[in-house]
Protein 1
Amino acid sequence: MRLQILVAGLLLAATAAASAPTPVADLAKPPGDAKQFTIMSTAAKHGWSARWVTPDGQHWGRESMVLRGQVFEQDSTARLGPDGMLDKVVVRGFTPSGDSAETFSVSGGQAVWKSPVDGASAPYARPAEYNAFGGPMELTAELLEAMLATPDKSIAMLPGGRARAEVLTTLTVGEGAATRTVTAYAITGFNNTPVPVWADANGKFFALVSPLSWIPVGYESYQPALQKAQDEAMSRRSPALAKALVKVPSGPVAFTHVRAFVDGDHFVADDTVVVDKGLITAVGPAASVQVPAGAQVIDGAGKTLTPGLWDSHMHFGDDASGPMLLSLGVTSARDPGNVTELTLSRAARRAKGELLMPRIYPSMLLDGKGPNTAQVGSVATSLDEALAIVRKAKADGFIAIKFYGTFNPAWVAPVAAEAHRLGMHVHGHVPAGMRTMDAINDGYDEITHIYFVMMQAMPDSVVNVSNGMARFEGPGRYAKDVDLNAEPMKSLIATMAAKKIAVDPTLVVAEGLFVPENGDLSPAYAPFVGTLPPAVERGFRQGGFSVPPGLTRADYRASFAKLSDLVAALHKAGVPIVAGTDGSGMELVRELELYVAAGFTPAEALQCATINTAHLVGADGYTGSIAVGKNADLVLVEGDPSKTIGDLRHTKVVMMDGKLMDADALRAAGGFEGRPKYAD
């Protein structure tokens, strides 16, 4: 489970709050001969990890990490049983969500576990490795090594599932006596898409390379080479997949007798939409639109045709994420920060037809240097450096810049002005020391995350450090008491409406941070239960951040309700809202459900995931709505989202650039074993 969470970039692993966590002083201290790893990104070092074996055969791990102000301090101890599998595991420490306490043991033919999100037992009759929910990377390393030691590089896991390793590529790293030949394996079973992990010649864990990487001390400089090698190896699978999943129509395609969301703003019953050569050529009543001779006819009776969905906040993960997102109906996405080299490589391969993925509109994430630096940020240590980053981003095809929390507030105005001069959009977090209105006055076109809109009403104690945990804890503590109809929010909302300052609320993120207790099934993922690996679905029950002293979960939930009210107030005032997930993409329809719960009509919610984002990135002239002359980016869904917005999950046919894809085939390629469930 830990590997799945880390690679997904969530890094908010839930932990139990039933007892006080083990304090840092009582956690294990690595001996001098422990294997040491640096936890790093392309932007900064974020912590360290260690693993070692004591003379009595105990396998230990210890990890310390600070990620954008979120503190992770954990250790683990484990013992191998007679079959070579772990038969005892203890995890201690804490994460931003609270106590990490977790246990696993095998005795008398029975396996028993208790994690922050679940507890159960199962018969233990044959070798299986426990897949810990949390803990240091040591526990994932143990699982990887046990798997690589098997003849078929495959291993059963508890609480469920099976992990498999397939060789991707090899690489030589280090110099002199430190030279190592390491092998990258694509691991399935942890996640719905393959996860690359590196091992040495002895089958021992060497490195995990992702937006957040675990690299052996002394080999940190090889992170770019490891990244490049694994991505090139993974990409070799993509052209065949793209060819297999895409069908280019031989002539026109007609979606007949369909309920259609047309012109970007309303649903129409019993329509026919005709597509030819990648463009929409006719839209109108089924009784009057003539279907061209020889056209492929897709019967839309009982179904709804919408524009392809947009995720306005999608940090694109890997090649395999493309079919997964398309299966969800996402044909376009805005990536507000990623590894630049990967972004450019994927765009080039997509243009050649070698990679099946939504059309991506990338922003350059711009941050300063400090303990809370974003892990995929381009770091500027001077104004001139920041301006140079913006100019290069424009030259590389980026459409926007996204400011992050550690960026120097004094540089925001000149950098935003330069971005505007180059025709780039300006959005982002609000740097520490600034309030929302300051960012708008300095040139923001859009505010990212609803809690940064609420930052206007936060006290100085929050604002001055709001790029770390305070950006969550502050709104969690104070938002419930903010009067949206009084100052300072009244003037802020009016200004944002007058200037058309957009908001990317990611309300589903706030829901996940403030609402659930550990063990609660997230509404964003509930429809997908039963379709994904057990390790992934276990994560659907992770709780929100632990509640600080003096507050209760009810307080956090009240603050989430006020954030929802703020989204409603912004929308009512005429502030443009664009729907994003900052997650895997599975959360997009839940984001729209939250808008409907806040008072949007289903049509207004759907606009936020279609024409609004298309307009924001300047693409509304050719996509984002069903209208004659626009690109044929379309999704046919079972059901009626004009009444139940959740029906958008039930994709049947996806069309991108006029090319047809079967949603079930896309789901299978994206790691789903079936269709999502309908809401109760």
Protein 2
Amino acid sequence: MTLSTFNPLAALRRTQSEKGNAPAPGERELLDVCALPVDAALAKMSTTDKGLDAARVAERRATFGLNEVAKRKKLGFIGEILQRCKNPLVLQLFVISGVSYAMGDLRSAIVVSVMIVLSVFLGYYQETRSSKAVEKLRAMVQTTCTVWRDGKEAEIPMNELVPGDIVILTAGSIIPGDLRLIFAKDFFVSQSALTGESMPLEKSITAGSTSASVALDLPNACFQGSNVLSGAARGLVVNTGVNTYFGTICEKLSSQRTLTSFDKGVNAFTWLMIRFMVVMVAIVFVIIGLTKHNWLEALLFGLAIAVGLTPEMLPMIVTVNLSKGALAMSRKKVIVKRLNSIQNFGAMNILCTDKTGTLTQDKVVLERYVDVTNRESEDVLRYAYMNSHYQTGLRNLLDNAILAHTDLDVERTCRKVDEIPFDFSRRRMSVIIDYEGDHVLICKGAVEEIFSVCDRYQVDDEIHPLIDMLKNDLMEEFQSLSADGYRVLAVAYREYPQSKEVFAASDEKDLVLLGYIAFFDPPKESAGTALEILRKSGVSTKILTGDNALVSQKVCKDVGLMIDGLVTGNQLVELSDQDLSALAEKTTVFARLSPSQKEQIIHALQRNGHVVGFMGDGINDAAAMKAADVGISVDTAVDVAKESADIILLEKSLLVLEDGIMEGRKVFGNIIKYIKMGASSNFGNMFSMVGSAYLLPFLAMAPIQILVNNLLYDFSQLGIPTDIVDEEYLLKPRRWNISSIKKFMLCVGWTSSVFDYTTFLLMLYVFHCIKYNDPNTTGDMKTYYENLFHTGWFVESLLTQTLIVHIIRTNKIPFLQSHASTALTLTTLSVMACAIAIPFSPLANSLGMVALPKLFWPWMAVTIVLYVILTHNVKTWFIKKYGVD
């Protein structure tokens, strides 16, 4: 569900207004629990701070169900069929079938009904089968949460959470339900998914007012769908599933679906064809009515033309292509969470990514731990270890590298007094422990930020003032290490009296600098190859990282990424949107970025007309992923990153990403094939209909023959989702271009009309159908000549437009340079065989056809060869003039 274009808070408050401002039952429960002290709140929910036991969990799951918000309701077989019948293309066929039946044309009504069944039921079958497979793939990427149960910490799937559970929350966690905090330390959350407000909110355990009427205003309540930015907390779950605030919103939105650019492209084509059909049908109806003076016949013929111009298989072709693409991508370790994102994936022409884990091996090794004199120091490593050991926030790769030193002689059983969590403005974090009679604040973080709060330094047991000259020397050493690709953190400390128990960021001052620790994350051997493949595929790569510029520059150099510009976050401050868009266009590497700056750069690139993907795995990447046209994450990412993503990679590699991009382009390529085939072929046939309506003494083809012709042609294209896409088509991103489709339809469509008119002449003057107008021709002979003409054009029309599938499906020379898939070859050959066989079959009489003369077939062979040559040349001219889209 996409909430980006909807204000959930406003929707919920409107709903409450409609109900007399009365809080929903779930909200009332949350208000009551949040108004109580912690112990009373636990008692009210019949739980303890150690969590629920297994028996109570099972009991509550039976009562409250799974922790899942309202999804689009599964309508069942009948509901799904009715939903598909609402498609404008299908509704159009229903109207035509109904009118045909009302006018006594039962055969036409039956054929149109068969088309409806083929489109609706085949689409339902294919999508149901594919959806089940895709759901299994999505289950591979599961969001979890950490809870206390039976006095033990356990990680469970989020949908197994029940009211009364005690949830453990750290930076990067998604709030799994509506809950009342029972412990919180420097705890900041983002509620933008609910309120649209981007500013973080600090939460505490302070009891809310008993008179509060809006739960969102409570300081001790957190809500499902929001996420933790920093700090640590434990929460008592009050509401889950549809009873949560987010669940209430989703119930209201579950029937609404925000259109993606892919949906808009399909709709634009659909309405283009509908408008074109209305104009053509009106013209044909008037011409036949005025020339033949039979308005009933004119109406039936017009309805048949309407069917001929209707791409009724489009919904099914689109669904099967997307589902097939998702399954193919899964085999290449790419899981698609939102099917329609496949098109954006293939259309992406700029990939923005962090460097860690994509350009580097994501295996950080602690290389150096030295004091300010550049001598190895166990004290520096020991203090860094205690900082990482005692923190409760989200441990990153650097922390893991430090904690890997398990043989270190360090005190691991100290009493932790307090913690000042990391945030992206301070870029440091501190823990305070009770150590040998003092409360020691140990601070670790970015070098510049640590230096800014230090006024002394320590060497061995001696402490000296940190003068500017020494700071400058240390900064030079730091820059030298960074230029060599090292990630450097500084370590500092300060002792406080035992009487001080509560600490805040303001206490990070007058610290003693111990030294620094340097890490190395080697570049991936495959990164350079992957970047070159992406570049050749028309995807340029930009690095958006929170790391410093020198490290970023070194890594980019090692993997062969050409740097056309390097900008830091400080340089982006106060830039106008216009200036930022210009800067984003020409810059390759952005360093020292905040999460909001990453999002701003994404928007700047989009304003420049790019389709932008963002690949990330951290909490600081979530906003950028939501802003991007396609958000990409990995299955090892933090929860909020996985929830924000459209695409999940099972392997954090740009090579895997490239495979997924190619599959996305294949899917879109096959959809465009169907659209171009149907649009150009139908246009050509209907253009011939208009001329024949004026020139011929009888209808060029009976309505029932037009319908059967169109039905068989639709069947011939069922193999398109399996077709092979030319490698040349995959070399660059592809986007919807309705203007190009319209031009293609007009340029290529007329070629079929050329041979339609030559067939008209063939049937009239070679096979004597012109005798229809001879006064000596009797009624039976008139019927024979009319049916002979109908049969000849039916066969020519079906053979040529079916064969032309192979011309349009590729930009190369068909059959010689590019071959269709086996399935598409079989469906087209089968239909061409039917076209030849029908005039000689028992069906011929009921369809108003007669056997064709032997001389007809050599003429037809020549017609087909010339048609293929002309259409291929026109297609080639079109590509040279307008390009490939």
